[in-house]
Design a protein that fits this description.
Layout lengths: L1 H10 L14 E3 L4 E6 L9 E8 H4 L9 H22 L12 E2 L6 E2 L5 E3 L3 E8 L3 E2 L2 E2 L1 H19 L7 H23 L2 E6 L6 E3 L2 E4 L15 E4 L7 E7 L2 E6 L5 H10 L3 E2 L8 E3 L3 E4 L7 E4 L17 E3 L4 H14 L4 E5 L5 H4 L3 H6 L14 H8 L2 E5 L12 E6 L2 E4 L1 H10 L19 E2 L7 E2 L2 E2 L1 E2 L5 E4 L2 E4 L9 H16 L9 H15 L20 H10 L5 E2 L1
Parallel strand pairs: 15-22, 15-23, 18-21, 21-22
Antiparallel strand pairs: 1-2, 2-3, 3-7, 4-7, 5-16, 6-7, 8-9, 10-14, 10-17, 11-12, 13-14, 19-20, 23-24, 25-31, 26-27, 28-29, 29-30
The structure holds adenosine-5'-diphosphate (ADP) and magnesium ion.
The site of magnesium ion (MG) has 3 residues, from α6.
Length: 571
């Protein structure tokens, strides 16, 4: 501490670069170490990164709070949130020019994700903070730096990172809720289910940009129709009743504005664990569930979309389809085939974001436009093959076409936000009123290509420098390219986007993308390495762990790679 104080006194009033003296140094405080991983070059640049390391003997977290791994993930998440709250209380914030005075930590939303912001182990607790080292103009403000580093930081550490200073109950609850969701996801599999929504869950959100739940008094709590009710028994909450969605093909029908999309959106996001009081903390979806939508304008690189699209005008190839500007239907087909290639096990689709001509072709249209004049084989004719040939289930929101009754195993109707099982009714309507349409799907689903990304098509550099950045959850700057992710709906956190960008660079750097390995093989190796080494490995800078990564699924890593416009593959 004294050493740090001396340096700050010495550099007070000097040019900002004088702060660089701190880079790589570690300072001993009475209760912890403060290590400067990275020191910013100027008060307007990205903030400095420090790590606070506390000996576990002092921090005092019982082993049961961080073992096994799921508890570790939940505890790290909880401590990140605790830091966030305490920063607001303790730290004075901006003082001086640019980012001067900033103290920050990664900022989790409604999901409990594996993060690099805090790490608890048998030996220590490490938290990674972002600091704006204070300056006036470009002159070091040594006094203010002292206040931040020698007063605020120790208070913060004391308040948020010692077991004894934290409220016991919410901490334990946070861990149990996450552990229960993991257990419930495992139970899904044993019971032949792909999703579960506990009775009493609150599905609607405040708004499209506010993921917090609609207040209790405005929301209709979920309750299962009796015929679909199942019971799961996670370790902490005990027996929970709710609606189980079985494998196979499920339709969500009902009038407009009756809550169909809200239900599907809850399922999309419940591949992740939710925090207590989220409303979805007892909603779980199979980990391999992938949202599929139309995404016209996206690039597509050599995807076999023949299961859905054939005989395009002017002989355009659909075995190995490329487009710089895919249409609604071709983009939706590509999204499915790429998803299958990357390991999707359940497809989630909403009519609101699907291409109509991709979903359905009714009898009258079949009469008017002959099969050999229509390149598209509609999804209705392939959805059963997806399940029988590949074991891939589908949950589909469709209020606009009863033709789908013929192919559905389960039909759930949303009626004033209440779910009803109308499978039997739908089946009897289907047999009473034939659609008279011709099936167009052929015998088999078709082939999912195993593509090999070519390393020379990925350039992380802008000029001579590697440049990979993401400021939101919707885009990654990769070299000079912008990867547009705003239609990749299951990225839920900007820290996931950041991790994806750096993981793609990692795969390139480590020669995983070598032109010979298939995308599936590359994703598998990344998963394994993430499991063994943690998110730290994604950092492009040696000895500089990044405090703002959150773990993405392989499906979203693939989605980003597939949306990089320069990507080229061999088949
Ligand atoms: P649909 O897809 O059937 O047209 P949405 O799911 O978009 O309907 O829901 C329409 C509106 O109703 C949205 O504003 C949504 O927030 C609200 N809503 C959905 N489910 C509930 C619920 N269980 N309780 C209260 N409001 C809800
Ligand atoms: Mg809708």
């Amino acid at each position: 501490m004294e050493k740090l104080k001396k340096i700050l006194t010495r550099i007070d009033g000097k040019g900002y670069k004088a702060y660089k003296d701190l880079q790589g140094k570690t300072f001993q405080f009475p209760d912890f170490e403060l290590e400067f991983y990275y020191v910013q070059g100027d008060p307007f640049a990205g903030p400095s990164q420090v790590a606070v390391k506390i000996d576990q003997k002092r921090a005092g977290f019982p082993e049961a709070t961080y073992k096994p791994k799921i508890r570790n993930v939940a505890l790290n998440d909880y401590l990140t949130r605790a830091l966030h709250q305490k920063i607001k209380k303790i730290c004075k914030g901006r003082r001086g020019t640019g980012k001067s005075g900033l103290v920050a930590v990664d900022n989790p939303g409604q999901e409990i994700l594996e993060r690099s912001s805090v790490r608890v182990s048998l030996q220590e607790v490490e938290a990674r903070l972002f600091l704006g080292l204070p300056a006036r103009g470009r002159r070091v403000l040594g006094r203010q730096a002292e206040e931040m580093l020698l007063e605020e930081i120790p208070q913060l550490v004391e308040a948020a990172l010692f077991f004894k200073s934290l409220d016991r109950n919410p901490l334990v609850k946070h861990i149990q809720v996450a552990e229960d969701q993991d257990a419930m996801r495992k139970e899904l599999k044993e019971k032949g289910l792909i999703a579960f929504i506990a009775n009493g869950s609150i599905l609607p959100r405040r708004s499209g940009i506010d993921q917090r739940p609609l207040p209790q008094k405005e929301a209709v709590a979920f309750s299962s129709p009796p015929s679909l009710e199942v019971e799961l028994s996670p370790p902490h909450a005990g027996n929970i009743k709710g609606m189980g969605i079985p494998e196979g093909i499920t339709l969500i029908v009902g009038g407009g504005y009756h809550g169909k999309s809200t239900l599907l959106r809850a399922l999309e996001r419940s591949v992740y664990n939710h925090i207590p009081q989220d409303g979805r903390e007892q909603v779980v979806t199979t980990p391999g569930a992938l949202k599929i939508r139309a995404e016209d304008g996206r690039r597509v690189e050599r995807v076999n979309i023949t299961p859905f699209i054939n005989n395009l005008p002017y002989g355009q190839d659909t075995n190995s389809f490329c487009s710089d500007e895919a249409s609604g239907s071709t983009s939706q087909a590509a999204n499915i085939l790429e998803g299958l290639e990357a390991g999707a096990r359940v497809l989630l689709m909403d009519e609101d974001t699907s291409a109509t001509n991709f979903m359905i072709r009714d009898m009258r249209m079949q009469k008017l436009v002959a099969k050999n004049k229509e390149p598209i084989t509609p999804f209705i004719d392939k959805v059963q093959q997806l399940y029988t040939d590949l074991g891939v289930s589908t949950i589909l929101v469709i209020g606009g076409s009863g033709d789908y009754f013929d192919v559905a195993d389960t039909v759930i109707m949303m009626d004033e936000y209440k779910a009803r099982d109308v499978s039997i009714e739908a089946r009897s309507i289907a047999s009473e009123y034939q659609t008279m349409r011709q099936e167009e799907g052929g015998e088999k689903f078709g082939q999912v290509l195993k593509r090999k990304p070519q390393p020379e098509s990925l350039n992380p550099r802008k000029g001579k420098k590697v440049k990979i950045k993401s400021r939101s959850d919707e885009a990654i700057q990769f070299g000079t390219e912008n990867i547009d992710l705003h239609n990749v709906e299951q990225i839920v956190d900007p820290s996931q986007t950041r991790a994806i960008g750096d993981l793609i660079f990692f795969a390139l750097r480590e020669n995983l993308i070598d032109g010979k390995k298939t995308l599936g093989e590359i994703l598998e190796i990344i998963e394994q390495k993430l499991e063994d080494q943690g998110l730290e490995m994604a950092s492009p800078f040696p000895n500089q762990p990044q405090g703002n990564y959150a773990r993405p699924r392989p499906l979203e890593i693939a989605a980003a790679l597939n949306r990089l416009r320069t990507l080229r593959v061999k088949v």
